[in-house]
Specification:
This protein is α+β, with helices and mostly antiparallel strands. The chain has one domain. The protein is built from one helix and two strands; from the N terminus they run H-E-E. A two-stranded antiparallel sheet has the order 1-2. The longest helix is centred in the first third of the chain and has 19 residues. This is UBA/THIF-type NAD/FAD binding protein. It comes from Amycolatopsis vancoresmycina DSM 44592.
Length: 72
């Protein structure tokens, strides 16, 4: 039998609020690309840190992100 660990409630809330903020920024026509654009945001709820890891778009992907300049 598998035992599943219940997620930390604070981490779940932090993840949900960060995701909503990134989505709202993406949907705002005047705002630049959100920090999550072509990246992974990793939340460490215990240390209170967010790690940003950038990922280049795959050159053969048809999404169009390859030609979009990245915000730093």
């Amino acid at each position: 039998a598998r035992h599943h660990q219940r997620p930390d409630l604070g981490a779940v809330h932090a993840c949900a609020s960060l995701a909503v903020a990134q989505a709202m920024r993406l949907l705002s026509p005047a705002a630049p690309a959100p920090p999550a654009w072509n990246a992974t945001l990793e939340i460490d709820a215990f240390d209170g840190r967010i790690r940003h890891r950038g990922w280049p778009p795959h050159p053969r992907c048809g999404c169009g992100a390859q030609g979009v300049p990245r915000e730093t």
